[in-house]
């Protein structure tokens, strides 16, 4: 909340910089394009993305299946579980998901041999 839209944009830049310092990518911040003006104040409601949306999940699973790697992908709630025998195949899937232009950053956890 501030007195001009320019100041709101500056606050968003500061917020993105603080998120980067904490290891969170700026693209995980969901900021609407319209800045609300009420009286003398301007404000915008920014939200952090949590989990993966169902449309993005389907794109990722389709990418994995089209890659012909020997892995299986399952959608579990707001996560995707990928299982496979070869560590190299799992790392290839991780690189493919990172390299794909899907509009949000991804975290990988529970990577076991």
UniProtKB/TrEMBL annotation:
The gene is yajQ. The lineage of its organism: Bacteria, Pseudomonadati, Pseudomonadota, Gammaproteobacteria, Enterobacterales. This is Nucleotide-binding protein YajQ. Keywords: Nucleotide-binding. Nucleotide-binding protein. The keyword Chaperone does not apply. Coiled coil: none annotated. Pfam families: YajQ (PF04461). It comes from Escherichia coli. GO terms for molecular function: nucleotide binding. It comes from the Bacteria.
């Amino acid at each position: 909340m501030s007195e001009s839209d320019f100041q709101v944009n500056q606050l968003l830049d500061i917020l993105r910089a603080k998120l980067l310092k904490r290891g969170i990518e700026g693209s995980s911040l969901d900021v609407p394009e319209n800045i609300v003006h009420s009286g003398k104040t301007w404000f915008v409601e920014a939200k952090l993305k949590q989990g993966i949306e169902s449309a993005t999940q389907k794109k990722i699973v389709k990418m994995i299946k089209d890659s012909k790697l020997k892995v299986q992908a399952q959608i579990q709630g707001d996560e995707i579980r990928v299982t496979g025998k070869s560590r190299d195949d799992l790392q290839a899937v991780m690189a493919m998901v990172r390299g794909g232009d899907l509009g949000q950053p991804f975290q990988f956890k529970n990577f076991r041999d």
